[in-house]
Amino acid sequence: MDREDQRRYLVVGSVILEVVTPMFQQKIENEYTTGGFRSLQAFINSQQVIHILFHLRHRNSWCCKDKANCHNPSALPLVYCQWNMLYSENPGPGIHNCHCKFTANSVQLNELDISLSSLILLNCCNLSQPEEEAVQLLRQYKNDYLSHNTTGCITQTEYNTLWPDIVTYVLRLDPTKQDDLVRIENRPLDESLCKKYFTCLLDLHQQLEEIKSTMQNLHSSIQAVSSSIIGLHSSAQTTVQGIDTTVQRMDTTVQGMDTTVQGMDTTVQGMGNSIQGIETSVQQTNDLLKELLQKGLTCECGRQIIFPLYNDQPRKHRKQYHLGQNIFYLHQQHNLEPLIKDDKITVVSDVKMMDDGRLVSCIPYKNSILICNTDGSHTYSISVQGGEPVYVTIVNNSTVAALVVKLFSFEIIEVYDINNKQKLKSISVPGMMFFYGITMINNKLVVGSSNRLLIVDYQTGETVQTIETGCRPYRIHASGDRIFFSDLSVIHPKKTPKMYCCFDNKVFTETLPSDPYSFTSLQDGSVYVLYEDGLILHVSNDFKHVKKVKINNKEVLNDHCIISYNTKQNKMVVLKGNILSIFHEGIGHLSENK
Q1: Mean pLDDT over residues 405-421, rounded?
Q2: Residues 6+ apart with CB under 8 A from 465
Q3: Which of 167, 194, 222, 331 has its CA 20 to 30 A from that of 126?
Q4: Are 221 and 331 members of one domain?
Q5: What is the pTM of this model?
């Protein structure tokens, strides 16, 4: 499987999910607000809209109201799970095949995928002819290139014709999306995000309907075979009775007929085995459906389902570094002060680089999260209402989670969609200490508490695991399946500084010369440990060996610096006050320090 083909799939899928779908949702919102409706639910519950959508799902139905506008479609584009998402049938008496039997559910705009939102736009909203064409074609591109694409790849030939069309029709609907398209087009391959988008974009509705149809056919076959067996048993019984009346006179005939009966019994037994095989197939299909519907990712219709498309690259095949090797060279520096536009006391408390290269920073005294490119371009901020963001971690390529300190020392986690500049949710975690830090492991958040680590599901807000550490976990950092931290209590006399690694619910330690200030992991799983004086220790991925790094530009790395490496970009970010330094990986660019 070619990585560039995968990357092109990710680019097209990202446009569909991150640009086109929200754009369709926004157009629906504009339609119902200008029409005087206060919510999406009120809009789809209006007689005109529910009548239109009813006939996109039901055939040979004539409503008790507005019969003149009823129609009998040859195709039913609105599938069952979409209709059931939008409407519920009213209990009690009423005309079953009429839209008046149904009431709109409390559905939210962000629940409408591109298929459902495009159906509503094309059938229930006022679009100009060019807009209608753009909506139809963007939906068609999704169907043609993504919905039935089980390889997760798009070839260069397909992409060369598809991408210009996508750009044309997206900009026709919203000319302000140019920057988003450029950013996504240059996005590197993120296999975990690609797997997630693959699951979201694959048209599972049709596959589930095909499974359902297959099961119905199997049940029909069972019934037919059962009827045949009943008939054979009746024939066998009749034959035996006839044989019994003549058995004394026709011994030879009896023997022949017995043979016939045995043959018929064998046939019956064989057909019984066939039934068992069919029933086994049905049971296996049922088990498969149950397994699919119990998995952790979500498809467009809201079903729980997952497809393991890609495997993470094993560490043993990744780039390996020699301990203490001079790996990075300073590429650029950027002062954030002009961007935050505040007095000199304002500082950036944390920074992380996303897989697409954007930087996400916490500005506590401005109550905001700052997003920009490494050169400071395309800068914008997200306001954090009533609190100060202190630490941030990357959830995925569109979502971040920040530790926020509210008034009266109340600490919460807030999750933001940085593309749409929206807060998705607030999570209160009992016992969480904000100054311990925050990180991600296995798609879960990790925060610190008194002598323990807390693993939090950011989607539900539930604390799903507690890990006893025997110390106060500080400067928490995770990579792969391991969590690194130091002990906050090393400030006490006679306390030996250590670096801790939590793996498989076990805690390992490495003695350090002094209290570390920041951790980050490299491609091969080894760890950089940064100290306040600029010293960097390189710890091997087996946690057995430590060596001092001979690194240039030491003045950039001292005095309370925060260090963070992005494995997709192969870049290291160093934050010192409000100065961001970007280091690129490239051993050939460096000269060894003597």
Answers
A1: 84
A2: 444, 454, 455
A3: 167
A4: no
A5: 0.47
